[in-house]
Amino acid sequence: MRGLLGFLVPKLLRALVAVWLVTTVVFVVMRLSGDPVPLLLPPDAPTSEIMRVRRELGLDRALPVQYATFAANVLRGDFGRSIHFREPAFSVVKGYLGATVELGLTAFFIAALVAVPIGLLSAIRRNTLLDHVAMGVALVGQAAPTFFLGILFILLLSLKADLFPTGGRGDWKNLVLPALTLGAFAMASIARLTRSAVLEVLRADYIRTARAKGLAEWLVIVKHTLKNAALPIVTITGLQFGTLLGGAVVTETVFSWPGIGRLAIQSIYNRDYPVVQCAVFLSAIMFIVVNFAIDLFYGLLDPRVRPRA
Amino acid sequence: MSATPAVLAPVAVRGGAGGRRTTRLAVAGLAFVVLLGVVATAAPWLAPHDPERQSLRGRLGRPTLQAADGRARLLGTDQLGRDVLSRVIYGARVSLTVGLSAVVIGGLVGAGLGIAAGFRRGFTDTVIMTLADAQLAFPFILLAIGIIAVLGPSFPTLIVVVGLSGWVSYARILRAQVIVLRSREFVEAIQALGGSVTRVILRHVVPNVLSTIVVIATLELARSIVLEATLSFLGLGIQPPTPSWGGMIYEGREYLDSAWWISTFPGLVLMLTSLVVSRTGDWLRDLLDPTLRGE
C-alpha cells in the first residue's frame, strides 16, 4: 500500500503543477491580449466610463492581486462573461462539451478496436501481403495531416459515394467520418506498436516452450502472447486518448461538429477571449486528468512500475 | 583530440544488406527535401503562372493541358481563377521557410536546455524538465491557438510558435545522452586538464550528440510542416492571398463538390512531404543512432 502511495503522490503533484502552469499561461496570455475594456464599450465612451469599467473588472489593481483574483475565479469556474453570447463563458463552453466527449470517445474506441486486432494479425502473419498492406496504410495514416484526411473522407465517402453526411451532429451516420478522421492517427500508432510489441513477445523463450509442449497456436497467442504484450499496448492506447483532445479542434472545424474545439476557433474570430480561455483551460484539464488516470491504470496493471516501499 | 564517436559506433556494427538499403532510402529521402528546397527557391521560374493573379473568367477551371487562353492548367484553377499548380509551388516556400526556421528555433532552444539540464543536473535540471513535462501535459495546438489569437496571426509569430512546439523532444533525448557522456573518461580527463565547461560542451559534447540532433530535426521538420499547414488551415497561420498548402486546402473546402482539385492537390503534396520527411527521419535514426528507437 505504501508503495502505491509513493507511486501516486508524485504523479498527483505533477498533475497539479501542470494545472497550475496552465492557469498561469492562460493568465499571461490574457494580459498580453491587452486591455479588454475598449471591446466591451462603445468606441465613443468617455474616459470616466472606461475608468469605471476598469475598476469594476479589477484591472486597476496590481498584477499579483489580479493574478490571485483570476486564480480564485478559475477555481470557482468563473472565466468572465462571453462577449459574443452575453452569458458566463463557463456555461457557454459547458454546452459544447458533450459533443466533444462523444466524438472523442467514439474515435478512441474505433481506433483501439480496429488497431489492436490488425497489429496482432500483422505480427502473426509477419511479412505477408496483409502485414505489408496494413503497415503501409498505418504509415500513411500516421503521416497524414488530420484536417486533410477529413477533407479526403468528405470528398470520397460523402460527396462521391454519398455514404455519410458531410458534417454537423445528428444520428450515428454523422459521427462516422469525424470519428474516423480523429481516430486515424491513434489507430495507426496503436496498430504499429501492437505489431512490434507482439513480435517482441513472440521471440521470447516461454513462447518457444509453449509451442514445444504442443499447445494449440491460438492458446499460445491469446494466453501467452497477448497477455504479455498488453502493457505497452495499453500505454500507447492511453497516451493516444490524450492526444485525441488536441486533434478535436481540427476535426470539429472540418466537420462543423459543435464541440469545444470548433467553439474555441470561432471565438477567436469573434474576439471572444473569455470563451477561448475557458475552452482551452477545460481541454487542458481534461487532458491532464486523462493522462493521470492512465498513469494510475498502468501502475495498477504492472507492479514493476511502482517504486518499492 | 577529437571526441569519441560513441553515438556513431553502431553503424559499423550494423552494416550488411539491410544497412545499405536503409542508406539508400535515407539518401533518397534527403534528395526529396533538397528537391523541395530547389522547387521553393526557383518558384518564380518554375511556376507557370503568377500565383496571386486572379482571373474571373477562368474560375474553378478543371485540370487541363489546354485552357481557354491556350496555356496549360495542369492542376486546374481555384475559386478566384488562380493557377493551382503555381500556388502549390509557391506554397512550398511557406512550408519550408516555416518548417526549417521552426526546426532551427526548436533545435537551439531544445538542445541548449537539454544539454544544460544534462550537464548541470540539480536545480537547473529539475526546472527544465518540469517545464518540458508541463508542455507535454498539454495539447500544444491549444496553446498555439491561444497565443496566436492574442498576438494576431503573422509570419514571425507563426515561426516562433511552431518552433517552440518542438523543443521538448530535443531537450529530453539530449539530456539523457549528455548525462551518459558527462561521466565518460574523456570528458573527465578534459575537465581534469583544466578544459572549461564551454570547451567541453562545444568541442566534445556537441559533436557527440550531433547525429541525434540531425535525426530529431528531420522528424521535427515533418511535424513542423504539418503544424504550420494545420494552423494556416484554421486561419491562424499564413494569411491570404499568400499561397500556403494549409490555406489552399481551407479555401478549397467550400468547393469540394464542384472543384475537388483546389484542396486535393496541395493536400496530397503536403501528405507526401510529411510522409517522406518523417520516414527519412526514421531511416536516419536507424542508420545513425539505433539506440533512439522507441523514443
Please render the helix and strand layout as text.
The complex is a heterodimer of chains A (309) and B (295).
Chain A lengths: L1 H31 L4 H4 L6 H10 L6 H13 L13 H36 L4 H15 L2 H15 L11 H31 L2 H8 L4 H38 L5 H10 L3 H29 L8
Chain B lengths: L8 H6 L1 H26 L1 H4 L37 H37 L1 H15 L3 H12 L3 H10 L2 H16 L2 H8 L4 H37 L11 H9 L7 H28 L7
Helix pairs in contact in B: 2-4, 2-12, 4-5, 4-7, 4-8, 4-10, 4-12, 5-8, 6-7, 7-10, 8-10, 10-11, 10-12, 11-12
Could you please describe the fold and organization of this structure?
The complex is a heterodimer of chains A (309) and B (295). Helices cover 78% and strands 0% of the residues of chain A. Chain A is an all-alpha fold and 309 residues long. The model of chain A has no long low-confidence stretch (mean pLDDT 82). Chain B has 295 residues and is mainly α.
Nearest-angstrom radius of gyration of chain B? Answer: 22 Å
Main β-sheet of chain B: number of strands, strand sense, barrel status? Answer: none
Report strand % of chain B: under 5%
Counting DSSP H or I runs of 4 or more residues, the number of helices of chain A is 12
Largest sheet of chain A: none
Outline the low-pLDDT stretches of chain A.
none
Q: Compute the number of strand runs of chain B.
A: 0
Any low-confidence stretches of chain B, pLDDT <50, length ≥5?
1-16
Radius of gyration of chain A, in Å, reads 24 Å
Bin the helical content of chain B: over 70%
Tell me the number of strands of chain A.
0
